[in-house]
Structures are given as structure tokens and as C-alpha cells.
Amino acid sequence: MTMAPSLTLHPVGVGLKAPHYNQALKESHEIDFFEVHAENFMGDGGPPHRWLSGFRSQFPLSIHGVCLSIGGRDALDKDHLDRLASLIERYRPALVSEHLAWSSDGGFFYNDLLPPPLTATSLTRTCAHVDQVQERLGRQILIENPSQYLKLGENDIPEPTFLNELSHRTGCGLLLDINNVFVSASNLGFSAEEYLDAINADAVAEIHQAGHAIDRFEGATIRVDNHGSHVCNEVMTLFERFVRHAGPRPTLIEWDTDVPPFETLKAEAGAAKSAMMKAGGAGGEYDAA
Amino acid sequence: MTPHDAEADARVYHGLGQAIRSVAPADLSDSGKPHGARVTAGITVYRNNVRAAYLRVLQDTFPVIHRLVGEEFFRYLAHEYFHTHSPSGPLVARYGDKLPEFLRSFEPAAGLPYLPDVARLELAWLGSYHAAEADCMELERFFALLREDPETNALQLHPSVRLVKSPFPIHTIWLHNKSGSADKLRLPEAGECVVVKRPAHRVFTEIISETVWAVLIALQQGKTFSAAITTAIEDNDEAATADIIRKIATMNVITAVLHTD
């Protein structure tokens, strides 16, 4: 497969959804890259691969894994890692990412991105998992910060420090999900600005932007990262703040529930691009390789 | 590992995990503690997320079962299935693989005895959709190769071929509901044998005779073409044999003629 075009300055992308395939392939002049969930393309063949090959011939791809359970205490699922490796080999994407999260424990698969404990032990374990993945894939991966809904005791290591150290020890990059930072900050009661200031911006190689829901319970309100609405103003302000300081990064719009018309995603991506251009920051071509 | 880190592991992986998996909504909050309502709400979000994610997988895998039983019953079915078949692997799209088997012994659905086989047909459709690519043989080449040595020829079926047989008219039921038709359905009394295939980019389904079904099953098991036909047709009926060969040759399901000796 030939190399797809590289990511250029102020790159914006959208998460690729099946209802948009046809339109997105024809009407995406403003879109610089597409992201897909790895697990949706782990079948042997069929229409999903036909579509993805079509996109790959025109756009850089980002492959985003959601099931490796890198933040888990169990050993990684080697068969699943092999499946991811085959997919990466087949499409040679510009970006590959996973999560600081666990989905699997003691043989039960939770199908959700659950936040791990942040201790010295879990840092060592997570580093070993990231090393294993990067070695198997033969390339760098990016690790995304999780969204959190409750405080599970006191963590020993603040999350930005944990992610910086993970990146420092393994050479992995970071995927900074600014909506997740805002959701976690609101739910756990910390400062999103301080979190962003503490993250090593040099390690951040991609940004995720998404909408979230506000669920009200008796005596509590929780912000839920459901990727089902516009990026809210507060998250946009945090994004502008980060890119003003760090410069532009490949920025992806995620919208997975109540998927809107493709034009809506393009408009969200356009807003992110404008914000990056307005913020200025580092110039030149962004090297995603 | 320090006792402190071990305790953190237990609290997160075991504690949160148990709270998510338990049948009854867990109440980890202690009303005497501050933030108790917030903890309960947070756990509820995780519980809901996990259940909603698996419900979506079943809805995506079994749209016709969903339509046949309705939203409320489907949610109940998904809940019972979740607590009976613990999801264990990262191939989430395969979560519903055991639903047909589960439906067979699911008492509340006993009044709809065709559900398990319709569910099998939906799994077959999905399996065919995601199957590996392969080119089907052209008709002339197929007959030319077949003539060379029919006794030792095995036919390789396209990787997308799935075969489903039922004592119920499952294809008629499935097609009617997949199309979203609101018309009243007049059901045939006999059961149906169905082949599902994806020779190129589109999945096709077709009702086939029991004889063709039996030959295809025998081929799938690796039998030679002549042995497969002998299995399905009694008394060496030449006319019936010619019909079967013609039918299979034109079905777009054969990718290669293999010599088995």
C-alpha cells in the first residue's frame, strides 16, 4: 500500500462513522485525516475493509484501539495484540493510539475504558504493557487520558505526572482528550487548567475533542463522556488555551452516539482548525511520523 | 508490591469491577460519609455504560430479533444474557455468539420457538459480511475442472458461505422484518434451508432445497463432490444429480476445485 499524504499544519480529523462513508469519501476537502476504532476492522474482509482501503488511499489514518486493557493488572491478550498488529501492518496509519484504562480483569471483559489506580506499581505495570505493544507493533503509540466519574480513593501519583512518566519511560506519545480532562476535573473536583499545564506538551501528538452529557442523580451531577453532542464552550476554551501554549496538534472530533449529519462533524473540525490558526503557536509542517 | 499498592489494586479492579457486575445496583456509598451520593452516582454511570455498550452490540447483531420481540423485551433479554454469559474477550462483536443457544432455554421466549434459528441466521449474515475476500470461479472453468476427475474433486466454498437449516420458515420471517415491512405476513408451514454468501461486497441470502443444503454441508466438511452428492441423493438419480451440479455451479459459492488425492 502506498504512503498516504502526511499530516500538514493545523490538521483536523473526524471519527469515521459507517453512515458517513459514502459522503465522507467524496466531500472531505476540509478534513486532513480520519480516525477509526481498531476493533471495528478486525474481521477478515468485507465492506468495512473495502471502505477503509478507499479512505487510506486518500487520507492519513489514525487507528485508535479501545480494547487492549493497557492499564489492567492482567497480562495483555496476545491474540488481540496480534490482531492489532495485522491491522497496523495492513493500513500503515499515521497515528496509533490506545488508552490509560482497563477493560479486562480476571477473565471478565467490561467493554468500557475504566481508570486504573495511579500507584508506583501500576506505573511499572503500564510501562511494561506499553513497551510490549510498541515492540510488537514496531512503532510508537499514543496513550489517551481516561474520563473519570468517581474518586476511587486517593491516587499516589497525579494523572498528568503518571502520563508524563509513562511517556518518558516508554517513549510513547500522549493523546490528550481535552473533553476527558474537563469531565474528570468536573466530576473529581480538580482544576482542568492545572492538569493541562502539568502535561508535557512535547509528548502530546494528538488531541481529541468531543461532547459530553450531564446526568443528574439524587444529590449528585455527573458529566458523562458520551461523544453525543457538540464540543462545549468550556472544552473549546481549554483547547484554545492548550494550543496557544503548545502549538497545533492533529485534532480529532469524536461523535459516536446520536451521530449527526457529516456536515456537522465538518463544522466541528472547522472550528477546531480556526481555533488552532487563531492561537498561532509553532509553525511549519507537523511531523506525525 | 507494597500493601498500599495492593490495596489500591483491589479497590479499583476488584471493587469497581464487582460493583459493575453485580445484579443489584451496588450501594458502595456510606450515607454517613461525605460525597456518598456522588460515589453511588459515579458507580451507576459505569454500570450503565457497560450494560449499554453490550446492549448496543446485541441490537447491532440481532436487528430482526429486536424487531420481533420489541424494545422492552429485548432489554430484558440483554440483561438476562449479560448475567448468564459473562463477556470474556475483547472481540466485542462476537458477544452475541451464544444468544441462539441462550434463547433455546429462555423460558419467557418459549412462545416464539423460531427465535433461536432466526438469531442463528442473523449471526450467519454478520459472519458472511465480515468474512475473508475470495474470487468465485467462472462457470466454464468450474465445469472444465470438474470433468477432469469428478471422483477426487473437492470443491472449496467461498469463505463467506454460511448454511442455516430450520424447521421454521426463518428466511421468510427474517426478510419480512429486515425490510421493516408492516404488512401482515403469511407464513409458509414448512421449514427453510438458507445459504448466506458474499461473493463481492454485498451479502445475499437464498432459500435452497434440503438436497442442495446437504451437498453444501458435505462440501464444507471436505467431502469430494461425488461423495457429497451421494450423501444427498439416493438411488444414483442422474437427472437429480445434473440438477444439483447445475444449481451449485451457478450459485456463486465455489472458489476452487481441489484434487484431494
Question: Layout of SSEs?
Answer:
The complex is a heterodimer of chains A (289) and B (261).
Chain A: E1 12-15, H1 21-26, E2 33-37, H2 47-56, E3 61-64, H3 78-91, E4 95-99, E5 102-105, E6 108-114, H4 120-137, E7 142-144, H5 159-170, E8 173-177, H6 178-188, H7 192-198, E9 204-210, E10 213-217, E11 220-224, H8 233-246, E12 251-254, H9 262-279
Parallel strand pairs in A: 1-2, 1-12, 2-3, 3-4, 4-7, 7-8, 8-9, 9-12
Antiparallel strand pairs in A: 5-6, 10-11
Helix pairs in contact in A: 4-5, 8-9
Chain B: H1 3-21, H2 36-61, H3 63-69, H4 71-84, H5 99-104, H6 115-129, H7 139-148, E1 153-157, E2 162-166, H8 170-178, E3 192-197, E4 204-208, H9 210-220, H10 225-232, H11 238-249, E5 254-259
Antiparallel strand pairs in B: 1-5, 2-3, 3-4
Helix pairs in contact in B: 1-2, 2-4, 3-4, 3-6, 6-8, 9-10
The helical percent of chain A reads 25-40%
Strand line-up of the largest beta sheet of chain B: 2-3-4
Structure class of chain B: mainly alpha
Strand order of the largest sheet of chain A: 1-2-3-4-7-8-9-12
Shape of chain B: elongated
Mean pLDDT over the full residue set of chain B = 90
Give the number of DSSP strands of chain B.
5
Euclidean distance between termini CA atoms of chain A: 17 Å
Oligomer: heterodimer
Q: What fraction of residues of chain A sit in β-strands?
A: 15-25%
Protein traits:
heterodimer; A: 289 residues; alpha/beta; TIM Barrel; eight-stranded parallel β-barrel; two-stranded antiparallel ribbon; 38% helix; 20% strand; disordered C terminus; B: 261 residues; mainly alpha; 2 domains; three-stranded antiparallel sheet; two-stranded antiparallel sheet; 52% helix
